[in-house]
Amino acid sequence: MIISFDIGGSAIKGGIARSETDIVPLGRHPTPKDDFAAFVGALRGIIAETGEQPSRIALSIAGVVDPDTQRLTCANIPCIHDRTLAADLEAELGLPVLIANDADCFAMAEAGLGAGRGHRIVFGAILGTGVGGGLVADGRLVNEAGGFAGEWGHGPIIASAAGNPPVAIPAYTCGCGQKGCVDTVGGARGLERLHKTLHDLDLSSEEIIGAWRHGEEKATRTIDVYVDLVASPLALTVNITGATIVPVGGGLSNVEPLLAELDHAVRARILRKFDRPLVVSSECSIEPGLIGAALLGLKAEAAAS
């Protein structure tokens, strides 16, 4: 038995995994952001609640492990930022610890138990508050040792003009320090930013999408520009990776007409032609961070035994 954790800025969610088909979620606990001892205590408490001793733990975190130094970058939880977190937790808990990025865990979950089942190469895309991604090939996470593979949301690659007819798009400053990243336009905040740029209107992403679905002219223009901007880098990602399915998670993935528009635009821009949907909604019903971390932990346990 292993325990997987999905660790976010506000809550820690746990789960018990005995096999790929036996993953049971546990409860939620507040995330101690500024006190490492309290953070360890929260994990220890969840482990104790199970009444069993796991063989290892696996964590899904909104951060990236440097594959060279094993240090974690996790800005939204200061007490674990810049730590060699796996080694630190192993010392505290006396258990083997595996850590993976949350988008990577999403991709792993969808490849193993979701929309990517049966596909050799799965690219999991996140369209949430921002943009993220993860890559799984032949059942293995490319980022097993940490790193940035799958981060299609970053890099100065968005078009300087988009839509029909084309309109100029600023190179917005990204939180990563660069300008013109897909992350600045592809998530919910990016959609709102585009609407403000195009129409000088401050609306939430939900309001923009609602107006678009009712045929409102300005919202329709914003979605047209959004799809044009996001489809090209996603199509490039598909060409480079050879992915044959792109499950999408995050809040915008729940807008099926938007995914259909994006799927149509991506399939029109890639070299390989598909007569079926390529960009699809995720399917995992349990929290994908828990599932992905559990699958990674189970694989590590099998390899160690």
From TrEMBL:
Keywords carried by this UniProt record: ATP-binding, Carbohydrate metabolism, Kinase, Metal-binding, Nucleotide-binding, Transferase, Zinc
A Pfam family per the record = ROK
Name it. Answer: N-acetylglucosamine kinase
UniProt-listed InterPro entries: ATPase_NBD (IPR043129), ROK (IPR000600)
Keyword Kinase on entry? yes
**Alphabetized SUPFAM superfamilies for the sequence:** Actin-like ATPase domain
Specify whether Nucleus is a keyword of the entry: no
EC id? 2.7.1.59
Reactions catalysed, semicolon-separated, are: N-acetyl-D-glucosamine + ATP = N-acetyl-D-glucosamine 6-phosphate + ADP + H(+)
Q: Which GO terms describe its molecular function?
A: ATP binding; metal ion binding; N-acetylglucosamine kinase activity
